[in-house]
Amino acid sequence: MSTLNVNDREYSVDVDPGTPVLWALRDTLGMTGTKFGCGAALCGACTVHLNGQAIRSCVTPISAAAGKKITTIEAATSGGDRVGSAVHAAWVKHDVAQCGYCQSGQIMSAIAFLKSLPRGNQPTASEIDSAMAGNICRCGTYARIRVAVADAAKALA
Ligand code: FES
Fold first, then answer.
1. Check: CATH 1.10.150.120 for 77-156?
2. Does residue 96's CB lie within 6 angstroms of at least one atom of ligand 1?
3. Of the N and C termini of the chain, which has fewer Cβ atoms inside 10 Å?
Protein backbone atom coordinates (compact mmCIF):
# COMPACT_ATOMS: atom_id res chain seq x y z
CA MET A 1 0.00 0.00 0.00
CA SER A 2 1.35 3.44 -0.93
CA THR A 3 0.16 6.88 0.06
CA LEU A 4 -0.22 9.56 -2.60
CA ASN A 5 -0.94 13.20 -1.94
CA VAL A 6 -3.07 14.34 -4.86
CA ASN A 7 -4.58 17.82 -4.96
CA ASP A 8 -3.94 18.24 -1.22
CA ARG A 9 -5.69 15.00 -0.28
CA GLU A 10 -4.04 11.78 0.89
CA TYR A 11 -4.98 8.57 -0.89
CA SER A 12 -3.93 5.00 -0.11
CA VAL A 13 -3.34 3.08 -3.31
CA ASP A 14 -2.82 -0.64 -3.49
CA VAL A 15 -0.61 -0.78 -6.58
CA ASP A 16 2.99 -1.75 -7.31
CA PRO A 17 5.42 1.08 -6.39
CA GLY A 18 6.69 0.98 -9.98
CA THR A 19 3.25 1.87 -11.35
CA PRO A 20 3.35 5.15 -13.28
CA VAL A 21 1.58 8.03 -11.52
CA LEU A 22 -0.63 8.36 -14.63
CA TRP A 23 -2.24 4.96 -14.10
CA ALA A 24 -2.66 5.43 -10.36
CA LEU A 25 -4.46 8.69 -11.12
CA ARG A 26 -6.63 7.37 -13.94
CA ASP A 27 -7.30 3.75 -13.06
CA THR A 28 -7.09 3.71 -9.28
CA LEU A 29 -8.29 7.19 -8.32
CA GLY A 30 -10.59 7.81 -11.30
CA MET A 31 -9.03 11.17 -12.15
CA THR A 32 -9.20 10.96 -15.91
CA GLY A 33 -8.35 14.58 -16.73
CA THR A 34 -4.71 13.55 -17.18
CA LYS A 35 -4.31 11.82 -20.53
CA PHE A 36 -2.23 8.95 -21.87
CA GLY A 37 -0.49 10.03 -25.04
CA CYS A 38 2.74 8.28 -25.96
CA GLY A 39 3.74 6.50 -22.75
CA ALA A 40 7.36 7.53 -23.29
CA ALA A 41 7.56 11.11 -21.99
CA LEU A 42 7.60 12.47 -25.53
CA CYS A 43 4.26 14.23 -26.01
CA GLY A 44 3.32 15.92 -22.72
CA ALA A 45 -0.35 14.84 -22.65
CA CYS A 46 0.19 13.26 -19.22
CA THR A 47 1.75 16.34 -17.59
CA VAL A 48 0.99 16.89 -13.90
CA HIS A 49 2.89 18.81 -11.22
CA LEU A 50 5.06 17.14 -8.61
CA ASN A 51 5.85 19.69 -5.91
CA GLY A 52 5.01 22.36 -8.47
CA GLN A 53 7.29 21.06 -11.24
CA ALA A 54 5.79 19.82 -14.49
CA ILE A 55 6.51 16.10 -14.85
CA ARG A 56 5.50 13.35 -17.26
CA SER A 57 3.26 11.10 -15.21
CA CYS A 58 3.46 8.24 -17.73
CA VAL A 59 7.10 7.55 -16.81
CA THR A 60 7.14 8.65 -13.16
CA PRO A 61 6.63 5.75 -10.76
CA ILE A 62 4.47 6.36 -7.71
CA SER A 63 7.52 5.56 -5.57
CA ALA A 64 9.04 8.84 -6.83
CA ALA A 65 5.99 10.75 -5.61
CA ALA A 66 6.22 9.52 -2.01
CA GLY A 67 6.06 12.43 0.40
CA LYS A 68 5.48 14.88 -2.44
CA LYS A 69 2.44 16.75 -3.69
CA ILE A 70 0.87 15.81 -7.00
CA THR A 71 -1.35 18.42 -8.61
CA THR A 72 -3.59 17.47 -11.51
CA ILE A 73 -5.75 19.38 -13.97
CA GLU A 74 -8.78 18.63 -11.77
CA ALA A 75 -7.45 20.98 -9.06
CA ALA A 76 -5.28 23.32 -11.08
CA THR A 77 -8.22 24.90 -12.87
CA SER A 78 -10.90 24.51 -10.21
CA GLY A 79 -10.67 28.12 -9.11
CA GLY A 80 -8.46 27.80 -6.03
CA ASP A 81 -5.21 28.63 -7.81
CA ARG A 82 -4.59 32.16 -9.10
CA VAL A 83 -2.30 31.12 -11.96
CA GLY A 84 -4.46 28.12 -12.84
CA SER A 85 -7.54 30.33 -13.01
CA ALA A 86 -5.77 32.87 -15.24
CA VAL A 87 -4.59 30.16 -17.61
CA HIS A 88 -8.01 28.53 -17.68
CA ALA A 89 -9.68 31.88 -18.44
CA ALA A 90 -7.18 32.64 -21.22
CA TRP A 91 -7.73 29.18 -22.74
CA VAL A 92 -11.48 29.77 -22.83
CA LYS A 93 -11.14 33.34 -24.10
CA HIS A 94 -8.92 32.30 -27.01
CA ASP A 95 -10.82 29.08 -27.69
CA VAL A 96 -7.50 27.21 -27.63
CA ALA A 97 -8.65 23.61 -27.69
CA GLN A 98 -9.47 21.80 -30.89
CA CYS A 99 -9.94 18.06 -30.26
CA GLY A 100 -8.82 18.78 -26.71
CA TYR A 101 -6.80 15.63 -26.11
CA CYS A 102 -3.48 17.35 -25.37
CA GLN A 103 -4.95 20.33 -23.58
CA SER A 104 -4.82 19.27 -19.93
CA GLY A 105 -1.10 18.63 -20.41
CA GLN A 106 -0.68 21.94 -22.23
CA ILE A 107 -2.43 23.79 -19.43
CA MET A 108 -0.37 22.08 -16.70
CA SER A 109 2.85 23.03 -18.53
CA ALA A 110 1.63 26.61 -19.00
CA ILE A 111 0.80 26.93 -15.29
CA ALA A 112 4.21 25.58 -14.22
CA PHE A 113 5.91 27.95 -16.67
CA LEU A 114 4.02 31.04 -15.49
CA LYS A 115 4.66 30.13 -11.85
CA SER A 116 8.37 29.90 -12.62
CA LEU A 117 8.48 33.52 -13.86
CA PRO A 118 9.19 36.46 -11.60
CA ARG A 119 5.93 38.26 -10.81
CA GLY A 120 5.02 40.71 -13.57
CA ASN A 121 7.41 39.19 -16.09
CA GLN A 122 5.92 39.15 -19.60
CA PRO A 123 7.39 36.23 -21.53
CA THR A 124 8.33 36.67 -25.18
CA ALA A 125 6.82 34.46 -27.87
CA SER A 126 10.02 32.47 -28.13
CA GLU A 127 10.20 31.97 -24.35
CA ILE A 128 6.63 30.67 -24.44
CA ASP A 129 7.41 28.38 -27.38
CA SER A 130 10.45 26.99 -25.65
CA ALA A 131 8.59 26.46 -22.34
CA MET A 132 5.78 24.65 -24.18
CA ALA A 133 8.00 22.71 -26.59
CA GLY A 134 7.57 19.42 -24.72
CA ASN A 135 3.82 19.42 -25.33
CA ILE A 136 2.76 18.17 -28.74
CA CYS A 137 -0.61 19.12 -30.25
CA ARG A 138 -1.71 17.01 -33.19
CA CYS A 139 -4.31 19.67 -34.06
CA GLY A 140 -1.66 22.39 -34.29
CA THR A 141 -3.14 24.80 -31.74
CA TYR A 142 0.31 26.28 -31.03
CA ALA A 143 -0.52 29.82 -32.16
CA ARG A 144 -3.55 29.99 -29.84
CA ILE A 145 -1.53 28.46 -26.99
CA ARG A 146 1.12 31.17 -27.44
CA VAL A 147 -1.49 33.95 -27.34
CA ALA A 148 -3.29 32.43 -24.34
CA VAL A 149 -0.09 32.02 -22.29
CA ALA A 150 0.89 35.63 -23.06
CA ASP A 151 -2.60 36.81 -22.14
CA ALA A 152 -2.54 34.86 -18.84
CA ALA A 153 0.86 36.40 -18.02
CA LYS A 154 -0.62 39.86 -18.67
CA ALA A 155 -3.61 39.12 -16.44
CA LEU A 156 -1.27 38.00 -13.66
CA ALA A 157 1.05 41.01 -13.87
FE1 FES B 1 -6.11 18.16 -30.47
FE2 FES B 1 -4.09 19.38 -29.19
S3 FES B 1 -6.16 20.07 -29.42
S4 FES B 1 -4.14 17.35 -29.95
1. yes
2. no
3. N
